[in-house]
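Example 649.
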Amino acid sequence: MPTLIFKETEACNSNCIYCDVIARKKPCTISFDLLETVFIRINEYLEKYSNQNFSIVWHGGEPCIVGVKFYNKVLELLDKHCPNTKNRISHDIQTNLTLINQELIDVFKNLGMNRVGTSYEPYKGIRGFGKERDSDAYNRAFFRGIELIEKNGFSWGFIYVVTRNVIDKPLEIFNILTNFKVKGGFQLHPVYSYKNEDKNNVGITAMEFADFLGEIFKEWWEHRQRYPFVQPFFSYMNHYGNGGTVCCSESGQCAYSHIFLGPNGEISHCGRSSDWDVFEVGNIKEVSIIEAFNHAYRKDLEKRNEYLLANDCKGCEYFSLCHGGCPLDGWNYKDTIFAKSEWCAATKVFLKKYFEPITGLKFDSRKYEQLDLSK
Amino acid sequence: MKKSGLTYIVDDLSLIRKNIIRDNSVVIKLSNPDDVVGVFQRYYGDYNIYQICLDLGFGSLSQIQFNNDWENIPLVIFAYNLGDLNYILNIVGLIQSCKIRVMQPASNKESYASLKILSSLGVDCGIFFDQEQADSEAFLDLASYYYMSPVPHASIEPFANIKENIHLDYNHSFDEVYFVDEKRFLYIHSEKEFSFLPQSKRLSIYLSDEDFEKEQVNFKLENYYGHFMELDQCSKCKAFKICNHKLSSSFNCDCQQTMAEVFEYAEISETVRR
Ligand SMILES: C[S@@+](CC[C@H](N)C(=O)[O-])C[C@H]1O[C@@H](n2cnc3c(N)ncnc32)[C@H](O)[C@@H]1O
Ligand code: SF4
Ligand code: SF4
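Predicted structure in complex with iron/sulfur cluster:
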């Protein structure tokens, strides 16, 4: 099933310190005319592939900033242009929750949503409104948002971006996050920085990230019944146990899984490739989704595994788990997607130094190779 | 104001009126044991009495002249100590047949032994936190007795509540044992005013449903979410899930350590049970 990362707007009410969208993009929102084209294109795709489903992730910028009128229009366009395919289209949203209100929740329910992805940062000065990055006002609005979605029976999970500000207090931040989110789960990932510019000095190294995860993992493992599903731990356990896939960036199979659409109709591969202006595929006005999925760069992505196995990742026992990491990180590191990610060092060190000794689990690459071949 | 499903707490009998209580359950606070039977008999037909809460202050459990009339009264008694143990042992059969929970203060060293006695006699009981600091070792010893002892015994709060709720998918404070939980209890002060805590801001009983819900959220923002705004020691505490800041100044040593151990005991006993 293809996933469309749809940044219908790149405007945002927040000023998060690490955000490449607000740093690199203009605060544009898609026009209703263009939105209409998008649904015509989605319908065209689904008419052609009648056994496929299609997932839309409303992203941004801040997807709540466009207001309820926008999503009512989406419902209208689904009825108008996708009458026979809309049942195969599912909707998710990644929102900062600070602008959520009952009207928006009602229209999200009409789109079939019952969960949201969000982001949380307890420390001040990282996520916040305005020039001063007012985190107190931001978190007050965020907490109200959580209360409202919970009242409406939505589940939620969040992304926690690990920055320099917290790198020396893994257990403290872990306790705060797990106190805040008792069940369900959250995902820890490092702050990414375009060409490692790190203008706000929040970047961390792969080794720092490995040790950060390692310190947390000791505690999580010991009390894993108590704690929620923390990623990436949970997927590593799943992977070591039965070869299940880890997240998209380490799947080695994203060539045909994702497509990105921006507010001006620009097509790319995913959120990060768009933020960093990699893989410019054209505009939805001229290029159909079917054509976008046949674009030449996807063939390159498809060849990446083979290339890495013969080069950067040659002989690495963990290749079948990490696949050289996210191609975008490879590009960010060495200007080519045929390079491995600089974060692969974090994966290796974390698994070798912490995960395996703590759990007693042993990595069996043969199992995964077989699985990979069968995919 | 949205009233259904909540329990109202009153210490002024003149407030027990249909136009105030409506169909909510009610906790009636009393301080004189002689009033218990009469008050229960007067109100139980017309009202859903959740509990009668008898606060004896520095009084002893043995000062109560229990008889068969006490049998069906849902009662929680806050007493300083047991008092005359012989008397208690003599009437223990009667107490067992009543719906009684006996609470004793954490600051009274005697409480820990008394609670073990009551619990082993099959009487539900518990510890409550007063202004004075508690001995964390004695508290942990009682916790380990409750969670680990193979000898049959009745429930001891707040340990029973912690154990019961340990798998909930949200933070749960055992404070409900002490009638504190803004989603469940309201303190009624007069015909016009209520509050979420005995001492917290007074609000109008005539709030619309919508405004009442807003006040509930505001209360939660100030209290529960306040820890995550301030990033105080509770927000970083390993025992927050079971404690939620209730014991910050209750122990003679680090509350985190004490409550983290209680958490472990509760988890172990749950694992053993499952
Ligand atoms: C760009 S935001 C858009 C959706 C919404 N505004 C939000 O914040 O959840 C999507 C996610 O990307 C994360 N993010 C933004 N900039 C990042 C960076 N430089 N490195 C890692 N994650 C980042 C955010 O924390 C957020 O969880
Ligand atoms: S809320 Fe999301 S889009 Fe907005 S600045 Fe923060 S990370 Fe970026
Ligand atoms: S044990 Fe202490 S620090 Fe922990 S939540 Fe309770 S009062 Fe707060």
